[in-house]
């Protein structure tokens, strides 16, 4: 096999349990958007539920519908809406939806009236990230209209939420600033009569390092898959997390070359002396980023090495120095590997396509 990606669902279940332990007073939402970060949404969602995830989080309605179609009946939220979205279908599927402005709230209310169901709705506050979410100046109007719709029975405001900008940078002043704004906006909503089931702002980084942000619910995405959100926080192992995916490939070529030999496009790497080069048959067409050229770590012949030269569309080269290998031997791009000592890594690995699962 040229290359394969193996997803270890036992590792995912262990990570979910570790993240629950990191926020013991809050419920846990496992985020499975974008095909569970490339790991396979439905199998990962099932494994997360088995490990005790209280909620699943999806970005788009289509992702949430796929989870319902696969048989998931638990608490499920999706938050990325555009005008004219399938609000009614989501309400009828008992999916929690989100509104960041009056247009979204009004569309949800209209859909709820049309189907005769009460919509479960979270109001999102922009506390400083500057993406989706309602600005503090606009919050009173959104809250007032939501409260009126709730009194009518069209909606139930089940959540108040926001998202951090820099929780993966320890001590960043925006963390405390966003928490302060969030508390103020929650207080205003509650003073207006809203009684949400959950208040939530913590992402993976905040779940692991900012306990005062846990409130009623934490949302863990990348950490669920055994990836530390940022090297500044430490390694995944520091938090008891295990990589869920291993990406490996079989060496396509191994050969001796003289010193001074250029390697790959542009000859951005030149061998410092006589050496052995190994060819790994995956490249940027498979999701290996071209910016990994000259920097990406690869485990070959028992050692972590660095990609030599430019990553091509379907291959790249590794300099083995004085070590030996043979065509067909395994190269591990990320994942558990063989227990070899690891270099410092960001954990932001490119996900492979069509993973197998175990």
UniProtKB/TrEMBL annotation:
<feature type="active site" description="Proton acceptor; specific for L-alanine">
    <location>
        <position position="265"/>
    </location>
</feature>
<feature type="modified residue" description="N6-(pyridoxal phosphate)lysine">
    <location>
        <position position="33"/>
    </location>
</feature>
<feature type="region of interest" description="Disordered">
    <location>
        <begin position="334"/>
        <end position="358"/>
    </location>
</feature>
<dbReference type="GO" id="GO:0008784">
    <property type="term" value="F:alanine racemase activity"/>
</dbReference>
<feature type="active site" description="Proton acceptor; specific for D-alanine">
    <location>
        <position position="33"/>
    </location>
</feature>
<dbReference type="InterPro" id="IPR000821">
    <property type="entry name" value="Ala_racemase"/>
</dbReference>
<comment type="function">
    <text>Catalyzes the interconversion of L-alanine and D-alanine. May also act on other amino acids.</text>
</comment>
<feature type="domain" description="Alanine racemase C-terminal">
    <location>
        <begin position="244"/>
        <end position="348"/>
    </location>
</feature>
<feature type="binding site">
    <location>
        <position position="131"/>
    </location>
    <ligand>
        <name>substrate</name>
    </ligand>
</feature>
<dbReference type="InterPro" id="IPR009006">
    <property type="entry name" value="Ala_racemase/Decarboxylase_C"/>
</dbReference>
<dbReference type="Pfam" id="PF01168">
    <property type="entry name" value="Ala_racemase_N"/>
</dbReference>
<dbReference type="GO" id="GO:0030170">
    <property type="term" value="F:pyridoxal phosphate binding"/>
</dbReference>
<comment type="pathway">
    <text>Amino-acid biosynthesis; D-alanine biosynthesis; D-alanine from L-alanine: step 1/1.</text>
</comment>
<dbReference type="GO" id="GO:0005829">
    <property type="term" value="C:cytosol"/>
</dbReference>
<dbReference type="InterPro" id="IPR011079">
    <property type="entry name" value="Ala_racemase_C"/>
</dbReference>
<dbReference type="GO" id="GO:0030632">
    <property type="term" value="P:D-alanine biosynthetic process"/>
</dbReference>
<feature type="binding site">
    <location>
        <position position="313"/>
    </location>
    <ligand>
        <name>substrate</name>
    </ligand>
</feature>
<dbReference type="InterPro" id="IPR001608">
    <property type="entry name" value="Ala_racemase_N"/>
</dbReference>
<comment type="similarity">
    <text>Belongs to the alanine racemase family.</text>
</comment>
<keyword id="KW-0413">Isomerase</keyword>
<keyword id="KW-0663">Pyridoxal phosphate</keyword>
<dbReference type="InterPro" id="IPR029066">
    <property type="entry name" value="PLP-binding_barrel"/>
</dbReference>
<dbReference type="InterPro" id="IPR020622">
    <property type="entry name" value="Ala_racemase_pyridoxalP-BS"/>
</dbReference>
<dbReference type="GO" id="GO:0009252">
    <property type="term" value="P:peptidoglycan biosynthetic process"/>
</dbReference>
<dbReference type="Pfam" id="PF00842">
    <property type="entry name" value="Ala_racemase_C"/>
</dbReference>
<protein>
    <recommendedName>
        <fullName>Alanine racemase</fullName>
        <ecNumber>5.1.1.1</ecNumber>
    </recommendedName>
</protein>
């Amino acid at each position: 096999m040229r290359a394969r990606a193996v997803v270890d669902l036992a590792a995912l279940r262990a990570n979910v349990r570790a993240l629950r332990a990191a926020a013991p007073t809050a419920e846990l939402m496992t985020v499975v958007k974008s095909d569970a970060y490339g790991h396979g949404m439905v199998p990962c969602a099932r494994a997360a539920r088995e490990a005790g995830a209280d909620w699943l989080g999806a970005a788009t309605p289509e992702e949430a519908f796929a989870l319902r179609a696969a048989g998931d009946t638990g608490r499920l939220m999706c938050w990325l809406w555009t005008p004219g979205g399938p609000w009614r279908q989501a309400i009828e599927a008992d999916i929690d939806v989100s509104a960041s402005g009056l247009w979204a709230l009004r569309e949800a209310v209209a859909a709820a009236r049309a189907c005769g169901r009460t919509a479960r709705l979270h109001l999102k506050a922009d506390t400083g990230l500057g993406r989706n979410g309602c600005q503090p100046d606009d919050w009173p109007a959104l809250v007032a209209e939501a409260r009126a719709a709730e009194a009518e029975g069209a909606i139930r405001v089940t959540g108040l939420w926001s998202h951090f900008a820099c929780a993966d940078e320890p001590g960043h002043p925006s963390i405390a600033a966003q928490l302060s704004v969030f508390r103020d906006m929650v207080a205003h909503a509650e003073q207006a009569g809203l009684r949400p089931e959950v208040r939530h702002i913590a992402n993976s980084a905040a779940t692991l390092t900012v306990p005062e942000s846990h409130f009623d619910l934490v949302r863990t995405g990348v950490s669920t898959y055994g990836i530390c959100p940022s090297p500044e926080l430490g390694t995944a192992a520091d938090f008891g997390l295990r990589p869920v995916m291993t990406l490996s490939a079989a060496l396509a070529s191994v050969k001796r070359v003289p010193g001074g030999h250029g390697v790959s496009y542009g000859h951005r790497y030149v061998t410092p002396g006589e050496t052995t080069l190994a060819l790994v048959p995956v490249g940027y067409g498979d999701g290996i980023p071209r910016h990994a050229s000259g920097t990406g770590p690869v485990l070959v012949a028992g050692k972590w090495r660095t990609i030599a030269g430019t990553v091509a569309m379907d291959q790249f080269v590794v300099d083995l120095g004085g070590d030996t290998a043979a065509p067909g031997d395994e190269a591990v791009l990320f994942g558990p590997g063989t227990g070899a000592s690891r270099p410092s890594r960001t954990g932001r690995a490119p996900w492979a396509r069509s993973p197998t699962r175990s």
